[in-house]
Design a protein that fits this description.
This protein is mainly beta. The protein has one helix and 29 strands. Strand 9 and strand 10 form a beta hairpin.
Length: about 625
């Protein structure tokens, strides 16, 4: 039976030298093991190392013992801002990315390993620390596999009372990207290595913006306009770890800090990610106007942290690296261990897990499989415009025992899409998230955030009910947030699935969308309402595109200053927008609510798609 799982978002060919070789695949151990079918029809087993360990080959099999690999160093930390001066830090550079598949351009492509029955040590570099007040960020640390060591990214630069700090370098043949330059008259960017790019220059006069950290595919943005920061450099998309159903991005630079916040680098490949949205921004966000904190690079991607803003707020640490080994196996090897098919199949020491990031079918093959556990997260609600509320996180349903049978054996799985954000034209409205369903179970969609329609606003909408409720708008009379733990768009109860959205502040700011574990913050007189926290499932390992494992965070509201409303659980809800600023969507595979915006002309953030995870004893 085919093991293709989800329809792919794209992805290159495999690059294994032993294609078509007869006989079974290798036998190996170590790391988190994932089995999948590539877009070329062949089957693979990958071993993902997010911490040090050993890749142990005990049998070479009959396919030549060829192993493709990805080695990513830790990302550099963002540079610190200055407490007293108008100076912002540069973004951290991406760690070196050494990849042996055709997703890497030929000059940067490594050579696949021809393995022997042996033990291959693996080290995984941690991200560099962000620089505190006026200090440059720390360099990321090295990662290695089979005696090949790649360097971490360079830390972002800063400025301290006229003493300038350039972005730190990551130079040598296995070096990564350099950090972005600090503002004013920093001497230069740091030097990049073969497997990275240089960081951007900081602005050299007035209220200064920091340069973006370099990424794998492109240099960091530099010499930005007065007070505005440079974007982080782009990374690279690869399917080596989880297959075409779940491409991952590695090696993005962190955004520099400035009066207007910017996201870290997005992926390469022409700047358009496979989903058509911004779910793949994994570099840290640069800090913004005085009270805006930055964010860290996402762990296990080697991305740089964002630069700190001028009041010395916390800067972003670099994301840790990762090592992935992959080899070809036969179809029967891919399907023999699983008692069912569908989704992306992964294994823990005792459990088999099926991740559904798009709708599909869970098909029971074994007559011994009679019960499964399931987690369903609905799509996040969309964020609105006009000092708007953030979208509510998708509802979370946990089911410890759901009966199944191999007769008839096929169970449709629907993964809820996120609600689109408001269009930014004053035409509103936005939309609720779509529920996720499996075997009569439902994770309800999040409610959309409240906002204004027309220019100037003629009507106002309150936050809507859902798995978690959307945040309220700035309606001059005040606007309540939507109720959580409700079936999408209704008053019908959905116990335990989420929390209420925060109320909007009259005339000033939108409330944060509710999250699975906490209510959204009410809109303050200045700033934004922060989205409510999502949660982490301790018994379900983190999914591929959400390495922190959080789900159901509420979106931040739009407000009168910067987007202080960060996502509710890391990598969950979207960031709310401030003055002349965009917000961001909810995270992919998290059901996070979309961020709300302050101004017309800036669309609300789309809610993040949900996820369904089905588990059983191996």
């Amino acid at each position: 039976m085919p093991f293709r799982g989800l329809s792919g978002f794209g992805g290159g060919s495999t690059g294994l030298a032993a294609h078509g070789a007869s006989g079974p695949g290798m036998t190996a151990s170590g790391g988190k093991v994932v089995t999948y079918q590539e877009s070329d029809g062949k089957y693979y087993k990958s071993h993902i190392f997010t911490s040090p360990g050993n890749f142990v080959v005990s049998d070479l099999g009959g396919k030549g013992g060829v192993v493709d690999y990805l080695i990513v160093g830790g990302g550099g930390g963002g540079g610190g801002g200055n407490n007293t001066g108008d100076a912002e830090g540069g973004g951290g550079g991406a760690g070196a990315v050494l990849l042996t598949t055709p997703e890497a351009p030929a000059p940067k492509r490594g050579t696949a390993l021809t393995a022997s029955t042996s033990t291959y040590p693996v080290t995984v570099g941690t991200g560099g620390a962000g620089g505190d007040n006026s200090n440059a960020g720390g360099n990321g640390n090295t990662s290695s596999f089979n005696s090949i060591t790649v360097k971490g990214g360079g830390g972002g630069g800063s400025r301290s009372s006229g003493s300038d700090h350039s972005g730190n370098s990551s130079a040598d043949p296995y070096g990564g990207s350099s950090g972005g330059q600090g503002p004013q008259d920093s001497p230069a960017q740091g030097t990049a290595g073969t497997y990275g790019n240089t960081g951007g220059l900081g602005y050299d006069s007035g209220e200064s913006g920091g340069g973006g950290g370099g990424g794998y595919s492109s240099a960091g943005g530099g010499r930005p306009q007065d007070g505005k920061p440079g974007d982080g450099g782009n990374g690279v998309i690869s399917t080596i770890g989880y297959g075409p159903a779940s491409p991952m991005i590695y090696g993005c630079g962190g955004g520099g800090a400035g009066r207007t916040a910017t996201f870290g680098g997005i992926q390469g490949k022409g700047g358009a990610d496979p989903t058509g949205n911004d779910y793949y921004r994994v570099g840290g966000t640069g800090g913004g106007p005085k009270d805006l904190n930055t964010t860290c690079g996402i762990d296990f991607t080697g991305s740089g942290g964002g630069g700190g803003c001028q009041n010395g707020n916390a800067m972003g640490h670099g994301g840790s690296g990762v090592v992935i080994c992959r080899y070809e196996i036969n179809e029967d090897e891919a399907t023999s261990a699983a008692k069912a098919t569908g989704g992306i199949i992964s294994y823990s020491p005792t459990k088999t897990l099926h991740y559904f990031f798009k709708s599909g079918t869970f098909t029971v093959l074994s007559p011994t499989l009679s019960n499964v556990s399931a987690v369903l997260v609905g799509g996040g609600g969309g964020g609105h415009e006009w000092l708007a509320g953030g979208g509510g996180g998708g509802g979370v349903h946990e089911e410890g025992s759901s009966p199944v049978s191999n007769s008839p054996g096929s169970y449709p799985v629907v993964v809820g899409t996120g609600g689109p954000g408001a269009p930014g034209s004053g035409g509103g409205p936005t939309n609720n998230g779509v529920p996720s369903t499996f075997n009569s179970l439902t994770g309800w969609g999040g409610g959309y955030g409240g906002g204004g329609t027309g220019y100037p606003p003629q009507t106002y909408e309150d936050g809507q009910p859902g798995g978690s409720g959307g945040g309220g708008s700035y309606n001059p009379a005040g606007s309540p947030g939507g109720e959580g733990a409700k079936q999408t768009g209704t008053t019908n109860a959905a116990p335990g699935q989420g929390s209420d959205g925060g109320a909007g502040h009259p005339g000033n700011s939108g409330g944060g969308g509710g999250g699975w574990k906490a209510a959204g913050e009410a809109g303050p007189p200045t700033g934004n309402g922060t989205g409510g926290d999502g949660g982490l499932f301790p018994y379900v390992p983190a999914p591929p595109v959400n390495p922190k494992g959080y789900r159901g965070g509420g979106g931040g509201g739009g407000g009168s200053k910067g987007p202080a409303g960060f996502q509710g659980g890391a990598y969950g809800g979207g960031v709310g927008g401030g003055l002349n600023q965009h917000c961001s969507p909810g995270g992919f595979g998290t059901g996070g609510g979309g961020g709300g915006t302050r101004d017309m002309g800036y669309p609300g953030g789309a809610g993040g798609p949900g996820i369904v995870v089905i588990t059983y004893d191996t």
